[in-house]
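Need a sequence for this fold. Nothing fancy.
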């Protein structure tokens, strides 16, 4: 529990808001613990179909609270930040980041573990680890170069470059950018769209995207196995029935 992490439920959409506005939404250990718990609860709840992470006020998050870093990160006991990152990257269901404003440090690196990253036009993205005398975390030293290419990743991680929303979109760090007038409604609509989608198809697709199975042939065979299973599934039957009856599909 943390008063600074607000979790709300709207039908099948769960929204987690980082809300510690007087400290620019800096994240403490207690907040990481609450974030981990919220993601694990979402993972376990079959009725919850989409999870949105966002920030309150004029920040997404300014990153780890600089007076509340965990120094022992690799022991047997998982500290809250590791629990949070593990819960996020192991979540088999869709996670959406709605980057309302500035994303700094783990505010940027957590995005690499989200499935969809939607941003407000005024959002910015920076990871000033070297400036702080630390190093990249959350596997960002692998995932950021994969996402934006080595040249831009080095500019961010080594030279401390901050990207604006358009650059983040152009470089492939974010999925879509919305202007102020359309931002809130678009996030709501997209989250609802994900929540209304076929849940098993969604999980299997996420798994295929995230977890490569050996060589290309092996991976393609894994896709075919899932494809074939889905063709025999109630989800496929419902999608076809809905098409024939010219209505929206409803998935259990
Ligand atoms: N940890 C703890 N406190 C933070 C914080 C953080 N990551 N980021 C901001 N705050 C606090 C400030 O200390 C200040 O507290 P105070 O009012 O008690 O003095 C308050 O939030 C407002 O911050 P301020 O710096 O005055 O706001 P700003 O609009 O001028 O700048 C930032 C905002 C986010 C650019 C700036 O605060 C910043 O650079 N923060 C540190 C970011 C960082 O290095 N994060 C760690 C990455 S690993």
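Here you go.
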């Amino acid at each position: 529990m943390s008063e600074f992490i607000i979790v709300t439920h709207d039908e099948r959409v769960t929204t987690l808001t980082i809300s510690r506005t007087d400290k620019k939404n800096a994240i403490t250990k207690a907040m990481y613990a609450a974030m981990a718990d919220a993601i694990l609860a979402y993972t376990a709840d079959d009725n919850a179909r989409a999870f949105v992470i966002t920030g309150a006020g004029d920040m997404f998050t300014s990153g780890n609270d600089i007076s509340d870093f965990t120094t022992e990160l690799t022991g047997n006991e998982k500290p809250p930040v590791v629990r949070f990152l593990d819960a996020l990257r192991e979540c088999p269901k869709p996670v959406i980041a709605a980057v309302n404003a500035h994303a700094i440090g783990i505010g940027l690196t957590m995005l690499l573990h989200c499935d969809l990253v939607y941003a407000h036009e005024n959002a910015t993205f920076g990871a000033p680890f070297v400036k702080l005398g630390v190093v990249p975390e959350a596997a960002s030293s692998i995932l950021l170069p994969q996402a934006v290419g080595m040249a831009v990743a080095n500019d961010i991680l080594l030279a401390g470059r901050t990207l604006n929303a358009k650059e983040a979109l152009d470089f492939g760090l974010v999925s879509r950018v919305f202007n102020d007038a359309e931002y809130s409604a678009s996030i709501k609509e997209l989250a609802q769209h994900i929540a209304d989608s076929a849940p098993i198809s969604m999980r299997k697709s996420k798994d295929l995207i995230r977890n490569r199975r050996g060589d290309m042939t092996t991976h393609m065979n894994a896709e075919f196995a899932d494809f074939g299973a889905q063709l025999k599934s109630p989800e496929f039957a419902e999608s076809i029935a809905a098409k024939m009856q010219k209505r929206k599909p409803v998935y259990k």
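For context: Residues 199-244 form one domain.
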